[in-house]
Design goal:
single chain; Rossmann fold; Dihydrodipicolinate Reductase, domain 2; five-stranded mixed β-sheet; 8 helices; 12 strands; elongated
């Protein structure tokens, strides 16, 4: 079965990677690419439609799966359009706040939507494992997270770091908002028992490194995920698009659903 795609932000780092990988896949067709700065687009497959905005092309490709790795404001507009036209939507945009996520969940009642801050298979396996590992280690292990990304990344901490921290908080039986610490400076006193520290580094062209530390008496466990290229995320997004094309609206899907579906 062939799946038509509409790729948003085609000249961006993720968009161009998605175009290249999808163009080489026998079961995917890059039907349209949305990019205002068309002069920066990579080589496109024959017959690919180029538009300035999703609104300019969505009616031409009913049921095509939209893949969005753009910005928070653009993603909200695109999600509304996808819901109105019943096009499935894969969202990899990070930096969305709680209200925006809630609105996207409402749109998911109208059209299939899968949203994940990280499309990596490895990261999503970690998300399944971390709650159990945290619970098994128990409260005597302090837990911190460190993430590193390139110097062009706009949001901090990364969406992936926040999602990993949520998985750790789940294992502690806590809500992340109640135990997260994003900044330490000065005379801060002893570390609170359930605190989860989340620290950010930015520099160079680092694609993404996330480390979770479990620090106990006499030992330390470190779990690190290194993303070596954006193909890792793009491949996961294309896998999600294939899966989402055959799903029904009603709930906001995650990469967990894709991998276990």
């Amino acid at each position: 079965m062939n799946t038509n795609l509409i790729i948003l932000g085609g000249a961006g780092r993720m968009g161009s990677t998605l175009i290249r990988l999808a163009s080489n896949a026998q079961d995917l067709t890059v039907a349209a690419v949305v990019e205002p700065k068309t002069e920066f687009l990579p080589k496109l497959p024959d017959g690919c439609f180029v538009a300035q905005s999703l609104k300019d092309c969505i009616e031409k490709f009913p049921h095509a799966v939209i893949i969005d790795f753009t910005s928070t404001a653009s993603t909200m507009e695109n999600a509304k359009l996808a819901a109105e036209h019943k096009n499935p939507l894969v969202i990899g945009t990070t930096g969305l706040d709680a209200g925006q996520k809630a609105q996207i969940a409402e749109y998911a009642k109208q059209t299939p939507i899968m949203m994940s801050p990280n499309m990596s298979v490895g990261v999503n396996v970690l998300l399944d494992i971390l709650p159990k590992l945290t619970a098994m280690l128990g409260p005597d292990y302090d837990t911190d997270l460190m993430e590193i990304h390139h110097n062009l990344k706009k949001d901090a901490p990364s969406g992936t770091a926040l999602r990993l921290a949520e998985a750790v908080a789940e294992g502690k039986g806590k809500k992340l908002a109640d135990v997260a610490c994003y900044h330490r400076e000065g005379i801060i006193g002893e570390r609170p028992k359930d605190e989860i520290g989340i620290q950010t580094l930015r520099g160079g062209d680092v694609v993404g490194v996330h480390t979770v530390y479990f620090m106990g008496a006499g030992e330390r466990i470190e779990i690190t995920h290194h993303a070596h290229s954006r193909e890792n995320f793009a491949g996961g997004a294309l896998r999600a698009a294939r899966w989402l094309a055959n799903q029904k609206a009603g709930t906001l899907y995650s990469m967990h659903d894709v991998l276990n579906g």
